[in-house]
Design a protein that fits this description.
With 191 residues, the protein is mostly helical. The chain has 10 helices and no strands. The longest helix is centred in the C-terminal third of the chain and has 24 residues, at 139-162. The relative contact order is 0.10.
């Protein structure tokens, strides 16, 4: 009998195997040309196994983004370190340029943008909510503030991707930090 912990590890390993396979294939062809059949053949599993874990190729991309976003940002959820988390995320994107550019250029680009917005919103909302000044601010106002920062960061990140990721992540986050410096506290105090 397999314990729940063993089952979770096995499931995570299979998801990881699928994502590694996808990343490997992206070196050879664009995202739109990669099929579920390609991935299951590479992983030597059935289509049923694939569909147990993912709905389609884009849910693998979403899973990869979620995992990597969590690794990059998870330890940087306070006002003093969230830009470090954002810089880590940009570094991961730079290191995985093939995946990022492929998804950005794909027919489902909106899916990726929507996913980035929803994942980053959760992290930024948590950071906003944990500020001492947030105690007296309504949930609706905190959501608006988090949405603003999420959309602003994603707009900069998407423009960076679109222009070929030429600028360093440090330069980008330094500029964002200058623009945002003090504005979060100001927003919380005036909402």
């Amino acid at each position: 009998i397999i314990s729940n912990t063993e089952k979770a590890v096995k499931m995570r390993n299979m998801k990881n195997d699928f994502s590694v396979s996808l990343m490997k294939m992206l070196d050879k062809k664009p995202l739109e040309d990669i099929t579920v059949t390609d991935i299951v053949n590479d992983c030597k599993v059935s289509r049923q196994t694939f569909y147990y874990h993912f709905n389609d190729i884009y849910t693998i991309v979403g899973w990869i983004y979620a995992q990597e976003t969590q690794k990059a940002i998870n330890d940087h959820l306070d006002i003093n370190t969230w830009m470090t988390g954002c810089c880590n995320l940009l570094h991961w994107m730079e290191e995985n340029r093939v995946l990022i550019i492929n998804t950005h250029k794909s027919i489902n680009r909106e899916y990726t943008e929507s996913f980035m917005n929803s994942v980053l919103f959760d992290y930024i909302y948590q950071m906003v909510d944990e500020q001492p000044d947030a105690l007296l601010v309504s949930k609706n106002s905190k959501e608006f503030i988090a949405k603003y920062y999420t959309l602003a960061f994603n707009a900069v990140a998407l423009d960076w991707i679109h222009t070929g990721m030429k600028e360093s992540p440090e330069n980008i986050t330094q500029k964002i930090e200058i623009l945002f410096s003090g504005s979060l506290k100001n927003a919380l105090n005036n909402m």
